């Protein structure tokens, strides 16, 4: 009986040793430590990041931490890129709101000005004698740029405000079709705008440089607020020069960013721009990812477009309603002599001297 009991005890001990060997090996392999509940500071087994560092991990992920991948599209190495959310918030927030209110405020101010002041008339009345203001090539360049910009402005504004204004009026199906067609028009007509922009720059840059008469024009506000006040200026006054340089600089910026958007992830304009600005100690990020480049490009394209639209609204008012005889300058290319003398007296005198010289009789032999 004792021998049988002893044999059973030895068997149990042997079995315990046999089954404990793999368990011991598994424990050593996983470097088992005490449960997390018994640990302090949120530690977890294996000395890995604990619960207290989860915020830091996800903060790094949301800031666009980059990993390593083997596929061709290296942009996929960024797990989460929060720049898109920031872009959407800024574009649909401050940019759209400020831009919309600015355009509305300008229209209201121009309407009040027109109601109180009326159009600027020709003080001496029309003389009936016409003089050339712009030749055919200049008018072609103007209308090519102007007409293409109107299409670009309308289709661009539809992308910003169409869902709030146009969609409720025409319905979702018609709005979808209209927006899709507008996208194609925006893409292709943009090239016509670029051609017109280059023509305007070549034809008019020499006449839009600063002159001595510009300061006097500014001091009297161009005579816009006082009837009978017409400061002497050359071919273009300060207001027209502002419009010209706004079209050239902002329009050029729109053309450049538009090309970048048409060919995404091919250019890095802002990295180069920020690097140049950093020479003055700005401290801007000059090593932007391609996705960040696209987001900044889209954002600036919208901002520059809204600013230029505001400028052109004022320009259209002056040409169409605010100044008698102004529209004929870019329509038929000719204006009345009294109009030219009143608004551009320095240029008028120059034109008259040329006419006298041209029509002078040949010298007697």
Tell me what you see in this structure:
It is a single chain. With 365 residues, the chain is mainly α. The chain folds into two domains: 32 residues, no CATH class; 250 residues, Fumarate Reductase Cytochrome B subunit (Up-down Bundle), CATH 1.20.950. The chain contains twelve helices and two strands, in the order αααβαααααααβαα. It has a two-stranded antiparallel ribbon with strand order 1-2. The longest helix is centred in the N-terminal third of the chain and has 35 residues. 17% of the residues are buried. About 10% of the residues have low confidence.
Tell me the layout of helices and strands:
Layout: H1 2-29, H2 54-62, H3 83-117, E1 130-132, H4 136-170, H5 172-204, H6 213-219, H7 238-262, H8 269-277, H9 290-322, H10 327-331, E2 334-336, H11 337-343, H12 345-359
Antiparallel strand pairs: 1-2
Helix pairs in contact: 3-9, 4-5, 5-7, 7-9, 11-12
CATH architecture name of the largest domain: Up-down Bundle
List low-confidence stretches.
5-40
CATH superfamily of the largest domain: Transmembrane di-heme cytochromes, Chain C
The outline comes out as: elongated
Give the integer mean of the pLDDT values. 83
The helix-and-strand class reads: mainly alpha
Order of helices and strands: HHHEHHHHHHHEHH
> Beta fraction of the residues?
under 5%
């Amino acid at each position: 009986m004792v021998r049988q009991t002893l044999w059973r005890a030895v068997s149990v001990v042997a079995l315990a040793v046999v089954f404990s060997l793999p368990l011991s090996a598994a424990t050593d392999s996983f470097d088992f430590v005490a449960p997390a509940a018994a640990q302090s500071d949120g530690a977890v087994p294996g000395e890995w990041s604990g619960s207290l560092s989860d915020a830091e991990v996800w903060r790094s992920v949301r800031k666009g931490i980059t990993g390593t991948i083997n596929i061709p599209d290296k942009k996929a190495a960024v797990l989460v890129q929060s720049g898109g959310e920031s872009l959407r918030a800024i574009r649909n927030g401050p940019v759209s709101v400020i831009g919309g209110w600015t355009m509305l405020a300008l229209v209201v101010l121009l309407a009040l000005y027109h109601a109180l002041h009326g159009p600027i008339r020709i003080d001496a009345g029309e003389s009936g004698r016409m003089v050339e203001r712009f030749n055919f090539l200049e008018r072609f360049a103007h209308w090519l740029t102007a007409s293409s910009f109107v299409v670009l402005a309308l289709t661009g504004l539809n992308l910003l405000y169409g869902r709030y204004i146009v969609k409720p009026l025409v319905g979702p199906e018609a709005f979808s079709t209209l927006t899709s067609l507008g996208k194609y028009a925006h893409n292709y007509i943009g090239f016509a705008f670029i051609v017109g922009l280059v023509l305007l720059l070549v034809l008019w840059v020499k006449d839009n440089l600063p002159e001595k008469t510009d300061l006097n024009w500014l001091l009297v506000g161009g005579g816009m607020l006082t009837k009978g006040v017409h400061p002497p200026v050359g071919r273009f006054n300060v207001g027209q020069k502002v419009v010209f340089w706004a079209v050239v600089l902002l329009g050029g910026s729109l053309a450049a960013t538009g090309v970048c958007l048409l060919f995404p992830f091919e250019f890095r304009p802002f990295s180069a721009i920020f690097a140049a600005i950093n020479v003055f100690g700005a401290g801007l990020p000059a090593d932007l990812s391609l996705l960040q480049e696209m987001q900044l490009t889209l954002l600036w394209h919208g901002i520059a477009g809204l600013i230029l639209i505001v400028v052109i609204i004022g320009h259209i008012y002056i040409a169409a309603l605010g100044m008698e005889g102004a529209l004929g300058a870019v329509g038929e290319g000719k204006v009345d002599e009294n109009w030219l003398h009143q608004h551009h007296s320095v240029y008028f005198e120059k034109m008259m001297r040329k006419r006298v010289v041209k029509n002078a009789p040949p010298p007697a032999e």
